[in-house]
Amino acid sequence: MTASRTARERVRAELTKEITDIARRQLATEGAGGLSLRAVAREMGMVSSAIYRYFPSRDDLLTALIIDGYNALGTAVERADEGSPPGDFAGRWLAVCHAVRDWALAHPHEYTLLYGSPVPGYQAPEDTIAARVRDVAVFGRILAQAYEAGALAPPDLAPPAPAALSADAANLREIMPGVPDDLIFRGLTTWTGLYGWVNFEVFGQFENTIQDRRGSFEQSARTLGALLGLKPE
Amino acid sequence: MTASRTARERVRAELTKEITDIARRQLATEGAGGLSLRAVAREMGMVSSAIYRYFPSRDDLLTALIIDGYNALGTAVERADEGSPPGDFAGRWLAVCHAVRDWALAHPHEYTLLYGSPVPGYQAPEDTIAARVRDVAVFGRILAQAYEAGALAPPDLAPPAPAALSADAANLREIMPGVPDDLIFRGLTTWTGLYGWVNFEVFGQFENTIQDRRGSFEQSARTLGALLGLKPE
DNA sequence: AATCGTCAAGAGCAGTGCTCTCGTTTTTTC
DNA sequence: GAAAAAACGAGAGCACTGCTCTTGACGATT
């Protein structure tokens, strides 16, 4: 079966892709709630029930789009990271921040699917977790490498992470190997801070408040980077 | 008309409240997408079309719930702030953080309505902005008072806010009067950081990652507070 | 060549938001 | 106090949704 894909399998793969493409376009224009299997079928010249041969339910289609979204975002973040000199950790962090923001602004509805509120009645299955961690993995790598290289000079802020959190720190260390507890939690704060900003911007919370979004964002990203001890070169 | 409310006006107000109450219950159990005017009507023993006498569309019902939500969250945050000694700025900040998180965890679907992705095809009307700013107003007040009292010792992080952002800083100063530009943007970073965390937790991003959510959150809140120069007493 | 699995099509079910009309009731106006 | 006006609940109906089931045709496998 691995050898020669039958014609049927080929056309099936093509139709599946066509469905997700149309669905992604609908998603981009209408948003997650406006995604309609019937409309997709209509646009394909199919009858609505035929779609169910390819996606057993609307949620399964959504899941496919979500996985695609995680991968697209992950790829964008990875590319951005690779575009900076490996030793310029502050620059890499900033590049990652902009990659996340740029991608989110370019694909607001897909971003919403990933980091916005869960779709009504839908809950992400396990299939998504593999793709979900790609962006944060990049961040963890930067932080771990910067720490290992001794390039971090984190400011001496008040409270170190209490010992009670060491178990969670150990979990998080999978993504940031070798990093001490306190810095792990700073990293967590930094990461959620990044997405907090992007959420606010994508969801329109800055509508009448901030004009220079990119400038303010960069300022925020730099501040968060400084929190980790990342010094611009 | 202000004098004697007619019987009709009274029953109208009561029915309106009953509708929003039932809708809020539905929202709590089903989520935003599962909110159905027909279901509300059914539960009230009314015919579905009658609801439209009170709310001209589903979006208007949602708007009412959103305004209620902003007010509930605003009240919770204000109460939390008042529960701390006025001079203990770090304590007030921490109390506000926990108030936001506690309210969000207690009313996840309402929180989603406020800070999650916008509901499909729905965009918040102007009516909401009055209630929307209550929580951030509390934060701005704490920061402004702390600065005025000379209680802030913000760490010397790398980049001060560039002059290009001074216009936006001036806007934000409405909420944090007297605070210098750089601190205003640190405040913005702090605030978005808080909601970034809460979003991650409410939307299930921490599901298999963090066990001690409250502890980790507090660590993050303290770190963000330290970023502002808030020193615990 | 016959069989078996896959497929598109169509009808149909239950549900949705929303509109319109039709009597009835309440409020306002004269 | 009677007449006009406004508000109201009920009901039918439209267009739409996700989803299921059945039917008949096509393609792949033995």
Written account of the structure:
The structure is a homodimer of 233-residue chains. With 233 residues, chain A is mainly α. Helix content of chain A is 65%, strand content 0%. The first copy, chain A, has helices at residues 7-30, 37-44, 48-51, 58-82, 89-106, 108-115, 129-132, 134-148, 166-172, 181-202, 213-228. In chain A, helix 1 packs across helix 2 (37-44), helix 4 (58-82) runs antiparallel to helix 5 and helix 9 (166-172) crosses helix 10 (181-202). Chain A starts with 6 loop residues before the first helix and ends in a 5-residue tail after the last helix. The mean pLDDT of chain A is 91. At the A-B interface, helix 9, helix 10 and helix 11 of A face helix 9, helix 10 and helix 11 of B. Chain B binds a DNA duplex (30 and 30 nucleotides) through helix 1, helix 2 and helix 3.
**Which chains share the greatest interface?**
A-B, 61 and 61 residues
- Gyration radius of chain A (Cα, Å) is 21 Å
Assembly form of the protein: homodimer
The helical percent of chain A reads 55-70%
Q: Tell me the β content of chain A.
A: under 5%
Biggest sheet overview of chain A: none
Counting helices, strands and paired strands, the structural category of chain A is mainly alpha
Quick one: how many beta strands of chain A?
0
Helix/strand order of chain A: HHHHHHHHHHH
Mean pLDDT of chain A: 91
Number of helices of chain A: 11
Roughly how many Å apart are the termini of chain A?
Answer: 54 Å
What low-confidence regions of chain A span 5 or more consecutive residues with pLDDT below 50? none
